[in-house]
What we know:
Strand order of the largest sheet: 1-2-3-6-5-4
Number of strands: 6
Structural class: alpha+beta
Distance between the termini: 15 Å
Helix content: 25-40%
Radius of gyration: 15 Å
Strand content: 25-35%
Largest sheet: 6 strands, antiparallel
Amino acid sequence: xxxKAFNVDDHAFAPMVSMEMNxxxxxxxxxxxxxxxxxxxxxxxxxxxxxxxYSNFLSVATNELIELAFRSTGEPGRICFDLxxxxxxxxxxxxxxxxxxxxREHPPASLSERRPVPDxxxxxxxxxxxxxxxxxxxxxxxxxxxxxxxxxxxQGIEIIADFPASEDFR
Length: 170
């Protein structure tokens, strides 16, 4: 599952919605996590034979990923939520500023460079502390999703989750 989702060319995904907020505004109220989740989940449910069922099921994973981003960013900047659809997958991408919590130096990366966070479970990035890594593994297993964390530029993180577009959840 994971290989199939991540081998899908990004160009195969059609944009559905993009939403951007100031991190300070986002962090000002925990309820934003629920409101954003509801909005994105409703969009993900569109064009399914049972939109409410699909939306409700994926809202759990979407909410956990948004709350993980909420807990992981304290830096000034923008947080972006993007939804994409391909023939077989729905992709949620959350991009936000996040400085590594350790003193380890990383080589500078261009703003357009995206690469996996190296040895994610042992980095100082709050999003990948042990509880975050366990959460991502559990969500991937429960939702048959491919979930990865990538470094976006020098101080940004992306959470990318590919959920199967099929409604055959168990």
